[in-house]
Amino acid sequence: MAKLEVTDSFLNPNDFSSINDAMKPGANFLWQHHLNNLNELGPENYLRNNQHSHVFYWAGEWQSDKAPILEPVFEKINAFALIRVKANLLLYSGDEPFFGGFHIDVDREDICTTAILYLDTCNGPTEFEGGEKINSVANRLVQFPANVRHGSWTATDVPYRRVINFNWIPF
Fold first, then answer.
1. Which value, to the nearest 10 degrees, does the dihedral of the CA atoms of residues 145, 74, 54, 56 take?
2. How far apart (Å, rounded) are the C-alpha atoms in residues 147 and 138?
3. Which residues fall within 8 angstroms of residue 145, CB to CB, at 6 or more apart?
4. Residue 21 main-chain phi, psi, to 5 deg
5. Tell me, what's the pLDDT at 47?
6. How crowded is residue 155: how many other Cβ atoms within 10 Å of its Cβ?
7. Which residues of the chain fall below pLDDT 50?
8. Can you give the pLDDT at residue 58?
9. Which of 26, 89, 97, 128 has the fewest CB atoms within 10 Å of its CB?
10. 3-state secondary structure of 15
11. What element of type H or E holds 39?
12. Which pLDDT does position 25 carry in this prediction?
């Protein structure tokens, strides 16, 4: 079993609301559409395997002018160096939940830590290859070694499921 560290109410309510409100669909926040794992999951899953994302940080550079909203998170994680920070928005994909497959987020998984900050409470969990599932609860952070394969389930009780993935080298 993977070493998972779950923290509920990770941010104070005001800081969490600032991040959450800034990233809601309809806010002035750019979400880019792409298809997930199309080669792995096959074209028959085309309509169910859609995701929007927003890259805050990648390849040693800030990619987004919205990054300052995440300062409360950066103050709480033990990051020596950021590797990638990316938000994901999974759309409702029908009455049956859809699993997008297992993956790791970054190439340097041997020295990195990964965390997921959930922005919405919904029935779309994160599943880990060992079988553990972490429910999507707003303002919950799950932290784990970056070499732990994980994947997302779509939600069937809300129009979308949003998370922010943080990958870093700890002190």
1. -110
2. 24
3. 2, 3, 109, 112, 113, 114
4. -65, -40
5. 61
6. 23
7. 38
8. 95
9. 26
10. helix
11. helix 38-41
12. 86
**Cβ proximity of 125 and 134 under 8 Å:** yes
Tokens of 109: 């998984």
pLDDT at 57: 98
Predicted pLDDT at 149 = 93
Enter the DSSP assignment of 154.
Answer: P
pTM of the model: 0.92
Confirm if 166 and 77 have CB atoms less than 8 A apart: yes
Q: What is the pLDDT of residue 108?
A: 73
- In sign, the C-alpha dihedral spanning 158, 159, 161, 162 is negative
Long-range contacts of 44-49 (CB under 8 A, 24+ apart): 45/98, 47/93, 48/93, 48/94, 48/98, 48/154, 49/93, 49/98, 49/100
Q: Is residue 156 classed as helix, strand or coil in its secondary structure?
A: coil
